[in-house]
Structure formats: structure tokens, C-alpha cells
Design goal:
The chain contains 13 helices and 12 strands. The chain is α/β, with parallel strands linked by helices. It is elongated and about 75 Å long.
């Protein structure tokens, strides 16, 4: 595992977004992750923290989603709070917020207020339900958003409740990544035409978009609208997970005929190979494959399938993954400040990225931001104030 170092801050070593300024109005979930990705890519991200913090419940020093950022503390309900944010927005290229619709406007930091100061600003809005629609002002969380899009209902066994994919599918895949794509596209437009715009990134929209291929298969009759009955949802006996003798698991993805043949050979079931093309024999095939995997430990099977094209891999835990030889060789994970964490992705040949700093501590960078951005004198810390309104992922 590589040790992340603070690079010399010279052109070409800060990432492809070096020079881009981003204001992040503090929230939880997909907004901070999107801002982290922009920061990983080299943007100067200033997080505007609330007095008292956003209520994530972990020590800010361990909140990896705030790495590579800087933090100032501003009370948006204080008389001068909105003006301070607008000072930053005037000097920024991008602003990201994750309030419920209408909250930023009531606070005086909505798109109209910001664009009056900076017409080129890209104003990114991260919500679960979106800015319009019957549910737009309702509280919610990842699990509810993906439930309505049909994607949660796809995941899990046929006779079991839908399996919850942590908050990766909705918050981060359908939310953060779509916000970043939208922000970068709008930033390109602003630089070409001199005009900023609002990016309305809704988790329901992004998550639905992720299922585009599945909807095509459904329309063509190649996908059944139920769990555990399809090629890619565990219904296929050569695309799924199997328990090993030590209670761990192996993942199998031997879809193509040549990979399937190699898989069956190494598994020790070459005689059952023709069952691949006979769906009526899939239960028999699944039972045989499951029995074989139960005969050895995960490590034994890992050795069997090593250096093969059988498309079979061990299911590793979060703590095990960084030590896998391939991931270690690629430095997929890194260590910074004593925290093992995923390294920035993707990778760039001319403008490499890095974990430059650890998680930004609330308010720690106020003076530096004032100096670098010229956004007015620091205002100091205010006593904790009630939140203006629940953020998108706060169901209070």
C-alpha cells in the first residue's frame, strides 16, 4: 500500500481541475462526496461548515469525504452569514448545496442571489427527489429514492426481501457522480459561453438513468421484472456468489462460453458444462456448483482460480481489500494521516491526482481562505444555531 504524500504544488501535479474554485455548503451524504471528488481532481474546495457541524456523527478528523478541502465556519442565520457566502460565490466557479428546495433561496444564497454576483457560476443542487415534483419537499434517504426507481427491487434473492446496497447505489452512484458530471459539463459551457447555470441533480433521476441497459433488456424480453431470475441478478448459476467451507464467499462471473468452460474445468465439474445453455438444468447446475464451493475454503478456491480467465474472485471485506496483491500493486487504496482510504480515481497521465490533505476540520482554514480568495475578513465562530431546514438526507 502506498503512503500518500503531499506533492509539491507545481503545475501538472495538482490534478486536472487545478485552479477551479468550489464552494460547498455543508451537508451530509452525496453533496460532500461530490465535492470530495472535485477536490481529489485538484479543485480548491472551500466547505462552509455550520456552527455545531452537520451532524454526521463521526469525528471530523476521520471524515474522508472532506479530504483535500478547506473549511470555514459561517452561520447562515446570522445577519452577515449570507453576505459572506455570496462573497465566496462571487469568486468561485462552482457552488454545491444539498438543502431541500427553497431553503437556499430563503437564506439568501439561492441561484438568483449568487448569479447576481457571479453570472458565470455553476450552481449545483444535490437532492434526492429533485427540485420539482410532488415529493420534492419531502425528507428522504438513499433507500427510499432507489426504491421508487425500481433499482432496489432488482437486488437480492427471489424469496428474500430486497438487499440494501449500503448507500452506494443511490447517494453516490445515482447522486454524487451525476452531480459531478453535470457540474463539469456546465463548467465547460460557462467557459465557452460566459454563462453559468443551475445543475439539478436528483438521486431518483441518476439512479433511474443507471438502469438504462436493464430497461432495454426488459423491453426486448431479455429481462424478467422480478429478482433472482436474470442473467445479472443472481438468477444465473454462473453469475453469483457461493459460500465456501469456512463460511466465506466466492464471486463467479463466468458469462462468456470460453470463460464458463474454464470455470467448470477448474471447479471440477466439466461434465456439467452443457447445462449452461439449458435453463431447465440451472437448478441442478447451481446445486452442484454450490456443493463444490462448500468443499474447500475461500483461500483454497482463490488459489485454484488464480491466473485464470474463469472470472472468479474471492469476496473480500473492507479491511481485506487494500491488501489484495492487484489492488496493492495499483495503489488503489492509500494511507494518509493514519487512515486507509480509497485513492483518488480515475487516473490521469499528465495531471496526476493525490490525497494532498486529510479531512478539513471545521473552521480551520478561515484565515487562509480569506487570504487566498480575498473574500473579506474572517467573522469568527458563532454559537451553535438551529439548522435553517433539514438537508436532503436529514429526515428530522
Amino acid at each position: 500500500m502506498s503512503e500518500a504524500k503531499t506533492p509539491t504544488r507545481t503545475p501538472g501535479t495538482e490534478g486536472p481541475l487545478a485552479g477551479v474554485r468550489v464552494v460547498e455548503l455543508a451537508g451530509i451524504g452525496p453533496g460532500p462526496f461530490a465535492a470530495m471528488l472535485l477536490a481529489d481532481l485538484g479543485a480548491d474546495v472551500v466547505r462552509v461548515d455550520r456552527p455545531g457541524g452537520p451532524g454526521l456523527g463521526i469525528d471530523p478528523a476521520h471524515d474522508v469525504t472532506n479530504r483535500n478541502k478547506r473549511s470555514v465556519v459561517l452561520d447562515l442565520k446570522a445577519p452577515d452569514g449570507p453576505a459572506r457566502v455570496l462573497d465566496l460565490a462571487e469568486r468561485a466557479d462552482v457552488l454545491i448545496e444539498g438543502y431541500r428546495p427553497g431553503v437556499a433561496e430563503r437564506l439568501g444564497v439561492g441561484p438568483r442571489d449568487c448569479h447576481a454576483r457571479n453570472p458565470r457560476l455553476v450552481y449545483g443542487r444535490m437532492t434526492g427527489w429533485g427540485q420539482q415534483g410532488p415529493l420534492a419537499r419531502r425528507a428522504g434517504h438513499d433507500i427510499g429514492y432507489i426504491a421508487l426507481t425500481g433499482t432496489l427491487g432488482m437486488i437480492g434473492g427471489p424469496d428474500e426481501p430486497p438487499a440494501v446496497p449500503a448507500n452506494l447505489l443511490g447517494d453516490y452512484a445515482g447522486g454524487s457522480l451525476y452531480l459531478v458530471v453535470g457540474v463539469l459539463a456546465a463548467l465547460h459551457h460557462a467557459r465557452e459561453h460566459g454563462t453559468g447555470q443551475v445543475v439539478d441533480a436528483a438521486i431518483v433521476d441518476g439512479t433511474a438513468h443507471l438502469s438504462a441497459m436493464i430497461h432495454g433488456m426488459l423491453s426486448a424480453g431479455g429481462w424478467q421484472d422480478r429478482r433472482g431470475a436474470n442473467l445479472l441478478d443472481g438468477g444465473c448459476p454462473f453469475y453469483g456468489t457461493y459460500e465456501t467451507a469456512d463460511g466465506r464467499y466466492m464471486a463467479v462471473g463466468a458469462l462468456e462460453p470460453q470463460f464458463y468452460t474454464e470455470f467448470m474445468r477448474l471447479l471440477g465439474l466439466p461434465g456439467l458444462a452443457p447445462a449452461r445453455d439449458d435453463i431447465a438444468r440451472w437448478p441442478e447446475l447451481r446445486e452442484a456448483v454450490a456443493a463444490r464451493f462448500k468443499s474447500r475454503t475461500r483461500e483454497e478456491w482463490t488459489a485454484v482460480f488464480a491466473d485464470s480467465d474463469a472470472c472468479t474472485a474471492p469476496v473480500l471485506s473492507l479491511r481485506e481489500a487494500p491488501h489484495h496483491p492487484h489492488l496493492a500493486a495499483r495503489a488503489t487504496f492509500t494511507e494518509h494521516g493514519g487512515i486507509t482510504q480509497p485513492a483518488p480515481a480515475p487516473r490521469f497521465s499528465a495531471t496526476p491526482t493525490a490525497v494532498r490533505t486529510g479531512p478539513a476540520l471545521p473552521g480551520a482554514d478561515t484565515e487562509a481562505v480569506v487570504r487566498d480568495w480575498g473574500a473579506g475578513p474572517p467573522t469568527g465562530h458563532h454559537p451553535p444555531a438551529s439548522r435553517p431546514d433539514p438537508a436532503v438526507h436529514n429526515p428530522q
